[in-house]
Structures are given as structure tokens and as C-alpha cells.
Amino acid sequence: MERITLDKHPKNGWFTSVLHAITHGLKQFTQLWSLQTIMDLPDRLRNLWQQLIGSYWFIPSACVLTGILLAPLLVTIDEHFDRETVRELSFAFTGDDEAARAIMTTIAGSVLGVAGTTFSITIAVLSMASSQFGPRLLRNFLTDTPNQFVLGAFIGTFSYSLLVLKAIHKYDVAFGVPQLAVTFAIIMAIICALLLVYFVQHMVHAIQASHVIQGASNDAIKNIHYWYNDRCNIAHQRNVEHQDVEQFHTWPATPIYASSSGYLQQIYLQSLIILSQDYAGVVQINANLGDFVTDKNVIGYFYQRPADHPDNRQQTNTPNLAIVPRAPDGMFWQRLAGCIRIEQRSTHSDDIAYSLGQMTEIAVRALSPGINDPKTAVNCVQSLTACLSIMMRRQPPSPYHFYTASPDKSASNKIATDNDNTGSNKNKSRAAILAVVTHTPNISDFIDASLGEIRRYATADLMVLKALCQAMVDLNYAKVNDAQQQTLLHELTLIEHAGQDNLNYQELVADLVAMCQNARQFIVNDDAQHQYFAYAPKFNDHIHQALRTQSR
Description:
Layout: H1 2-8, H2 14-39, H3 41-54, H4 58-79, H5 83-87, H6 97-132, H7 138-142, H8 145-167, H9 179-206, H10 209-230, H11 234-239, H12 244-247, E1 253-257, E2 262-267, H13 269-278, E3 281-285, E4 292-293, E5 298-304, H14 330-339, E6 340-343, H15 352-366, H16 374-393, E7 400-403, H17 409-418, E8 433-438, H18 443-457, H19 462-476, H20 482-502, H21 506-524, H22 538-551
Parallel strand pairs: 3-8
Antiparallel strand pairs: 1-5, 2-4, 2-6, 3-5, 7-8
């Protein structure tokens, strides 16, 4: 009976069912990736490139591949090259096959041994850096491009030498010795010797605390320029023609859960904007970059736009396709998971807090009893002050991200036909539609997470507390509004209280309190940004006064 049914209805057979399932899956895959990968392709490619560069194997593997390709290429060129011309070159190799084989064997064995030495030095440096600076800073040493290139040059030369050694034939006198290839191997051996000297000098500088702090500071400044300049969306916020910024919280909300447990590393805004418009709503992400979330955490909400909302009559980039509100379905959650990248471990990304946290971790570890290096903590405070000063002077990124639909040509032509007297409607752009709302930390959050964390560990160290007090004065030169000034005054009060409660001697407490009071008076001064701040302890004043009295 079942066989007759399949014959009468061939479309219901198993082959058609499988074909329909494959077609449906390809359609979903196309809908899922055509909208996301294309819109955020630069960001996705940049993240992929950072992952490749951040791996310890990429550059050495590229050097090995280069050596493998160069060996047969130079051997082939040798076969078609005039031997007399090679002998006229003073630095070229012109020996026989045994000399060539001996040279290539020596080069291959030497560079492989030196590669093992460099790898041993790298492991020793990593072990020391882990104990002194923290295990989370090991990535900065592993991703050091000069270190990877030196190791890659050694093993690349080794691979090249092995393949050239294979091409040296004993009984073929005319073409048995690839002279150009052997000459190039000798040049590479000399370069490897120079690279070994450079590697030792580079590792000596790499393990210095000032070098590590400067590297973390450069990463933080790069991330600040990325977020506080390119991603600023204030123009759309000013040009918005509706009140969705204030009203979207009153719309029906659907919780957004994390797709997996891990650290939030990237939010692809363009893909998220397209997704919110396809479902006619607003996506709000409350979690920050770098936050740890579980698969049960609510990281945001999707607010469904009301059916009578005027933006529902807008047109998308697809002709004759109106935005119709619809509830989130399975495709919505699949696309949403592709818009938010969550990693199992916290990695280097465009997160400003991650870069600032590296300097904070170095300072906190330097203040531990086992290391007890307050000067390194002071250097971290100064580098953090430089980064925070740049942030205070720049316009922070807007948490509101808008969708602006491009005008539909057919609709514009129809408007122009119906209204011949008003040709200006033809190219009239649509209003920006609120699509995504993200959480943007303010300057007070960054100050508390960086300088404030150091203050909590340096409560009994006068040198670091005075450096934090000086940092508030230095940041005051970069303030642009009263809110930033109040943040500096609040942090200055906490520094003063920390010293009063934890410093051992009254003279030290009086010194810190006096500096904090002078700094407070300087910050509240309206003309402070055009004046020089200098603090001299009372003990120094007594010395200067005594010297003046003796000189008279």
C-alpha cells in the first residue's frame, strides 16, 4: 500500500524529501551568511588576521613554505644559467659537488641547532614573564613578530638547505652543483647569524618592565583611536526624527541569551542592524566587550516595534519589501549567534578595558609582597594616565546605532511622476531608524577599573598613592566637562582616605593629605588648565628656609 502511494505521488518520495531538505538548508545558509559576512566582512577578516598573527605557528610556517618554494625555483634557474657568468661573481660558490654537499649539511645542522637554542631562550623568557608580569601577558611575548620571524628564518633556512642538498647530484658534472642555490644558502646562513645577535638583544629589551608596559599602552591607544574616532555615530543620533531613543523600552521585549559560555569578544554591528530591521525591532546589548557570560545569561533584549509604528512603512534595500514586525524565530536566533562572537578564553581584541587591564595587572603584581616593585606600579599609573587623557579629550562612541535605508529608485520615480512640481522628493533620503543599542562605559568606569584598582592594592605605599594623586592632576588638563571633573575629585578623595587609613607614620599621612588638598584646589580652579602644578612637601620648605637663612 505504501508503494502504491509513492507511485501515485512521486513528489512525496524519499528522494524529493531529501532534496527539499537540502534546498531548505542551503536557503537558510544563504540567508544566514549572505547578510552577515558581506556587511561585516572587513571586521571579520581583520579578526581572522589577528588570530593568525596571534598564533605562534603562522609566521614560522610561512617561512618554511617560502624555503620549500625557493629551493626548486633556484635549482631550476641554475639549470638554465650560464656557469661562466656565475664564476665571474666573486662571492658566488664555484666548488664541486662534495664541497657543496658539505656546506649545505653544515648550514642545515647549524641553523637547526640555533633554532633549538632560540626556542629554549623563548621558553625561559616566557617562564620569567609569567611569574613577574602575569600569565595573561604571555600572549604579548608569543605574538611578538620579530621573535616569530627569527625562528621562522632559522627553520626556513633549514628546510631550504635540505631540499637544495637533495638536488646536488654526484655524477652530473654539468648541472650537478646548483651554484646559485648554494650561494643563496650561504647568504642566508650569514643573515641567520646576524639574526641570532638581534634576537638576543631583542629578548633583553623584551623582558624589561618598561618595554612590556609600553607595548600594552600602545595597544590601548590603538583601541582608543578605533572606538573613539571611527565608530562615533553621533551624527545619526542628532539627525533622528523620532523619539525611539526614549520610547523603545516600552515596546514588547524578548530576552536575548548568550549562545554559549565564554567571553564576549566582538559585536558585529552592521549584521545586527540588518537583523533588527528584518524583524522590525531594536536589539539592545547590555553586556560589555570582555564580560564573561554563560549560556543562561540575559545579555540584552529584542524590543518589537508596534504594528502601528510609522517606521514600519519604510522600505529596505530590497525593492517592494516593506518592514513588517514579526516575532523572533529560529532563523533570528541563528543569525543573532553569528552577530556576537564569544570565545572560551579572553583574547586580545579591540576591547579598551582589556588593554588597560594588562597595565593594571602589571601594577598590581608589582605591588605584591613577593615582588615589591612600586616603581613599576608608578610607571603603569603614568601610562594609564596617558591613555585615559586621550579618552577624555575624544568624543565617546554613541550607544545608539541607526539604520538608514537607501531610497528606492522605482518609488522615487513614481513620486516624481505623481508630483511633477516637486522634483526635490526624488532624492529625498529617509529618516534614520533606531536599530541597535549597546552599552558604552564612560570615563569614570575606566578610571575606577584601572587607577582605582591600583589604589585598592597600594593603600600602604606612599609613592604609588602620590603618583595616583598626580595622575588626577594630569587628567584634569584633559577634562572637557564638569562630570569628568567630579570623577577626578571623587577619586582624589578615595586616595586621601586610603592613605589616612593605611599609612603607618603620621608624617607620611600629612604629606599625602597636603598633596591631595593642593591637587583638589588646583582641579577646582577654573584656570587650572593654563597653570603649572607643583607640590613641595613641608619638610622641603623647611630645608629651603634654613638654607636661605644660612646664606644671609
